[in-house]
From TrEMBL:
NCBIfam families: oadG_fam
GO biological process assignments: sodium ion export across plasma membrane
Listed name of the protein: Oxaloacetate decarboxylase subunit gamma
GO-annotated cellular components: plasma membrane
Recorded GO MF terms: sodium ion transmembrane transporter activity
Matching PROSITE patterns: TONB_DEPENDENT_REC_1
Keyword Transmembrane attributed: yes
Name of a matching Pfam family: OAD_gamma
Listed transmembrane segments: 20-40
Keywords noted in UniProt: Cell membrane, Membrane, Transmembrane, Transmembrane helix
Keyword Protein transport: no
Chief localisation class: membrane
Localization: Cell membrane
Length: 127
């Protein structure tokens, strides 16, 4: 009976020590993660300062009109797109609109890859 009480006391002490060690360990890990989060936010704030606004606002008007003229898609490009659609679809078709994406609209490489994956997953069946 005495050995059972001694074993029980040792087990209780070990369990208490284990719980204390677990709480201290989790506290250290969470503290380190919070410090890492603050460091990342600080670096983000330091590196992503807003750029100063350009001082010349009147010069942007002619540039915008010149850009609008260059947004036109060449007729040769439209013919190539129509030929590609005809080769894939093999049915009468009508191309209603062709839009070109600027680099900013196209997004990151991740966005382009996702768009490409979606487009290639919807291939029409050939008969």
């Amino acid at each position: 009976m005495l050995t059972n009480l001694t074993t029980l006391a040792l087990t209780s002490e070990q369990l208490t020590g284990g719980i204390v060690l677990m709480i201290v360990g989790m506290g250290v890990v969470f503290s380190a993660l919070i410090l890492l989060l603050w460091a990342i936010k600080l670096m983000h704030a330091m590196l992503n300062k807003p750029a100063p606004a350009p001082a010349v606002a009147a010069a942007s008007v002619p540039v915008a009109s010149a850009k609008a003229a260059s947004d036109e898609i060449e007729p040769e490009t439209l013919v190539v797109i129509a030929a590609a659609v005809a080769a894939i679809v093999r049915k009468p078709h009508r191309i209603r609109r062709v839009d070109s994406l600027t680099a900013q609209q196209a997004g990151s490489n991740w966005a382009r890859h996702g768009r490409r994956a979606i487009m290639t997953s919807h291939r029409p069946t050939r008969r």
